[in-house]
Amino acid sequence: MAEKILVASGKGGVGKTSVTVGLCKALHKCGKKVLIIDCDMLRSVDLLTGVTEKLLYDWGDVVLGRCEPCQAVYASADVDVMTCPFSYEGIDGGKMKNLVALFDEQYDYIFLDAPAGIGKGFELALSGADRALVVSTADLVCVRSACRAADVIFASGMSDVRLIINRVMKKDIKKGRLLNVDSVIDSTQVQLIGVIPEDKAIRLGSMGKNIYRTGQDSYIPFTNIAARVRGEYIDLAL
Fold it and tell me: How much is the pLDDT for 35?
């Protein structure tokens, strides 16, 4: 059975989808078969994985019976992708859970990339997952938003929730412009699974640059987080 992982953030602009794609690429490199289900109507996973030109159906078409499940899955070089419909009308948590179950035996990991905030798209993604990763940057606004998202996840009964702190700039932390890692953990009350440094290559992902490539500042952090997701012990030393 696939492990089903929600990736959420309270606020936009923290690099949540880039983290999702980078992490999934790292898991693929470990020999894992990975599906990303984009649950954000703004739809960016296809851009970051290079499958945009292939798109014909989305997962809403599957849920509403307009196509076969396999017709809405698009293969990139390393991960498979299902893109989000432009409306959630007619779709509820039960249907989302059933959709994810269709692919349970085909993948090792299914990632549900939630939209920012805690609206319906977030709720749908949460309904299909059994673990969660909350992504935040180290500023007060994003940390408060991440804390709220984490509270909703915990309230749903999910206990396996981990924190990824993205776009970390050590110089700004030292100068007090950003919160330090301990402060982010204390504020969100979520156990840390990894820290990803600011990396220009990630920000250029939407322009076709590979998000996960040897030599990038984020390569080893992505690799380490992927190992921790798989249950390996990797030291969290920053």
Answer: 98
Q: Is 154 exposed, middle or buried (0-12, 13-18, 19+ CB in 10 A)?
A: middle
Which are the contacts of 100, defined by CB distance < 8 A and separation ≥ 6? 2, 4, 37, 110, 112, 128, 129
- Tell me the average pLDDT across 157-176: 94
Distances in Å between the alpha carbon of 106 and those of 20, 100, 126, 144, 197?
19, 11, 20, 37, 33
Q: What is the mean pLDDT of residues 13-32?
A: 96
Tell whether the model's pLDDT for residue 120 goes beyond 90: yes
- SS3 assignment, position 104: coil
What domains are there in the chain, each with its CATH number?
3-229 (3.40.50.300)
Is residue 238 predicted with pLDDT exceeding 60? Answer: no
What the block records as the tokens of 38 is 């984009």
